[in-house]
Amino acid sequence: MKSFVAILGLASMVSLAACDSKQENKVENAYENQADALDNQAANMEAMADNLSGNAENAAENAADALENKADATREAGEAAADAVEKKQH
Question: What are the Basic and acidic residues biased-composition ranges (predicted)?
Fold first, then answer.
């Protein structure tokens, strides 16, 4: 499901990229790169959780979920920052 959402998000970003300014894209890309790094950390945490059991596994999975939520929030902040740049340019 998450990969579907990521693909859908990527497709919408590509379709909107044609009408975005370079500055707007730069801002959004910076946030997107940060969010991707958080997603990678979450994936590593989930892989680690697979090797744990009990409370340790639950704690690692919760940490991974928190990282994924932070990545989502970072992407949303990036979109908002890019929108702010776009509004300043118009």
Answer: 67-90
Give the separation between CA 87 and CA 56, rounded to whole angstroms: 46
Which structure tokens are listed for 34? Answer: 């940060």
* Cα–Cα distances in angstroms (integers) from residue 61 to residues 1, 8, 52, 77, in the given order: 17, 25, 10, 24
Question: Do the domain assignments include residue 61?
Answer: yes
pLDDT tens digit string along 44-77?
999 999 999 999 999 999 999 999 999 999 999 9
How many domains, the chain?
1
**Residue 90: both structure tokens together:** 């118009």
Q: What is the DSSP letter of 1?
A: -
26 in any annotated domain: yes
User: What is d(CA 90, CA 82) in angstroms, rounded to the nearest whole number?
Assistant: 13
Q: Closest Cα partner for 60 from 68, 50, 70?
A: 50
* Residue written as token pair 């596994």: 57
Whether 6 is covered by a domain: the verdict is: no
